[in-house]
């Protein structure tokens, strides 16, 4: 993955996803880096999902989070 193909995904609930690639190769390891707003307490029930744009909830980019 080239550095120029990486970007920052739009914030959702204050969570910022870093180094988000425009595409990913199926069946390969994906690393997810993100920052949380100050004072945010993570929970064991938090999750991150990566979807194809056509199937992504609310027509958002390739990443989303829940419970944060």
TrEMBL record:
Domain of life where this protein originates: Eukaryota
InterPro entries (UniProt xref): SKICH, UBA_autophagy_assoc_protein
SKICH domain residues: 15-53
Signal peptide: none
Key words, A-Z: Coiled coil
Alphabetical list of Gene3D superfamilies matching this protein: 2.60.40.2840
Protein known as: Calcium binding and coiled coil domain 1
């Amino acid at each position: 993955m080239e550095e120029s193909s990486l970007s920052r995904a739009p914030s959702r609930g204050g969570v910022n996803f870093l180094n988000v690639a425009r595409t990913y190769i199926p069946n390969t390891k994906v690393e997810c880096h993100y920052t949380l707003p100050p004072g945010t307490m993570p929970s064991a029930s938090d999750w991150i999902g990566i979807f194809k744009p056509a199937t992504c909830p609310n027509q958002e980019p390739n990443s989303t989070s829940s419970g944060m």
